[in-house]
Amino acid sequence: MSAPRKQIHLAAHFPGVNNTTVWSDPAAGSHIEFESFVHMARTAERAKFDLFFLAEGLRLREQGGLIHDLDVVGRPDTFAVLSALAAVTGRLGLTGTINSTFNEPYEVARQFASLDHLSDGRAGWNVVTSWDAFTGENFRRGGFLPEQDRYERARSFLSAASLLFDSWRTGDVAVDVDAGRFLSRAGAGDFAYRDRHFDISGRFDVPRSPQGRPVVLQAGDSEEGREFAAASADAIFTRHATLDAGREFYADVKGRLAAHGRRPEDLVVLPAATFVLGDTDADAEEKAALVRRQQVSGRTAILTAEQLWNRDLSAYDPDGPLPEVDPIPGENTVARGRASTRMHRDPVATAHRWRELAEAKGLSLRELVIEVSGRQTFVGSARTVADTIDDLVQRDAADGFILVPHVTPGGLDEFADTVVPLLQERGAFRADYEGPTLRHHLGLRTDSGRHRERGAG
């Protein structure tokens, strides 16, 4: 008797805070009007997706001292959007990115516990860190935190927040991380937590929510990020969406769980993925090439190159050769507030690789940027894309995918109407929701004291 098919998890990423959105498309709509959020969330729920995901930026991005006009400028607050969506959806998970560097555990725990109540157990928290002083200028705390300490604060932040979530279950709780002590007394909602980052005590004023605590998501590919996810996250976002890279990442993070007393099924691996669909594979490939040229205009190509070269390249022709000068090493002073400014560990070596690739393939600067920044994961007919997604999941390259459409807000519609039914036909994706909470959707244990116990040292 053959084993049952591994079930695929699907999530919807609201486009905008990334470089994949095509705002010039006639079908593109607002990234601020509430109807845009409603449209995509209802499409995802109609297709029985696990969750809807909102990214977040804490400062407007700049390049050359000016607002980066090829990126999203502003977005409504994450909690406001997700709380409003709770009223117009019934089963879809509602997850958002909230920073652990420039917030406080009590405030964030209170907001997520409230969202979990308002949504009847559908809240999810993508825990991220920030270390740059540019973003920190918006906060009293400023850019004080060295990069190497950001995950330590994140772990402490999550332990403190989890203590608050659990305080209505365990009664009065106290943790002294430095002394390695955990105390439990009769009561409801009282807490105390102390380590080098936090010294807080009081009474948590939101009763235990339907999930007990929100689902914790994490995005990070570094050694610290993988270990943080293995110890503390319920799901991890990754950029590794191809078979070989996906299987390597999947085996690595799943292999870390046992050291933290966890099972492989306690962490869901979800690569981010884009898609272009067509009536045939050839039709999809033609559309994909057009989308890539829409995503990378000549101006976008120059700005992207400036982020690597760390210098003004406005005098260069995007349809000409790459700059012969090397990037300026050290802190990136051209582009600020963008994750891409930290992606190139060795800019000079990267520039050399780009030149070699451009020479070998006869690529202009714009064509090179299209080549190296391409993020079209699934391209083909609906059946081809369904086959590919199913194959990657069944072969343990992922547990599912976070889909990032290139058009807002209707870019998910075609996938929901054509690919999802094919996955359902083969028994690899749910025909309906089987439980009320996000933990049910992701196949996670619904109640666990592991964060509290680990936080006690």
UniProtKB/TrEMBL annotation:
<keyword id="KW-0288">FMN</keyword>
<dbReference type="Pfam" id="PF00296">
    <property type="entry name" value="Bac_luciferase"/>
</dbReference>
<protein>
    <submittedName>
        <fullName>F420-dependent methylene-tetrahydromethanopterin reductase</fullName>
    </submittedName>
</protein>
<feature type="binding site">
    <location>
        <position position="97"/>
    </location>
    <ligand>
        <name>FMN</name>
    </ligand>
</feature>
<dbReference type="InterPro" id="IPR051260">
    <property type="entry name" value="Diverse_substr_monoxygenases"/>
</dbReference>
<feature type="domain" description="Luciferase-like">
    <location>
        <begin position="25"/>
        <end position="394"/>
    </location>
</feature>
<feature type="binding site">
    <location>
        <position position="222"/>
    </location>
    <ligand>
        <name>FMN</name>
    </ligand>
</feature>
<dbReference type="InterPro" id="IPR036661">
    <property type="entry name" value="Luciferase-like_sf"/>
</dbReference>
<feature type="binding site">
    <location>
        <position position="151"/>
    </location>
    <ligand>
        <name>FMN</name>
    </ligand>
</feature>
<dbReference type="InterPro" id="IPR016215">
    <property type="entry name" value="NTA_MOA"/>
</dbReference>
<dbReference type="GO" id="GO:0004497">
    <property type="term" value="F:monooxygenase activity"/>
</dbReference>
<keyword id="KW-0285">Flavoprotein</keyword>
<dbReference type="GO" id="GO:0016705">
    <property type="term" value="F:oxidoreductase activity, acting on paired donors, with incorporation or reduction of molecular oxygen"/>
</dbReference>
<dbReference type="InterPro" id="IPR011251">
    <property type="entry name" value="Luciferase-like_dom"/>
</dbReference>
<keyword id="KW-0503">Monooxygenase</keyword>
<keyword id="KW-0560">Oxidoreductase</keyword>
<comment type="similarity">
    <text>Belongs to the NtaA/SnaA/DszA monooxygenase family.</text>
</comment>
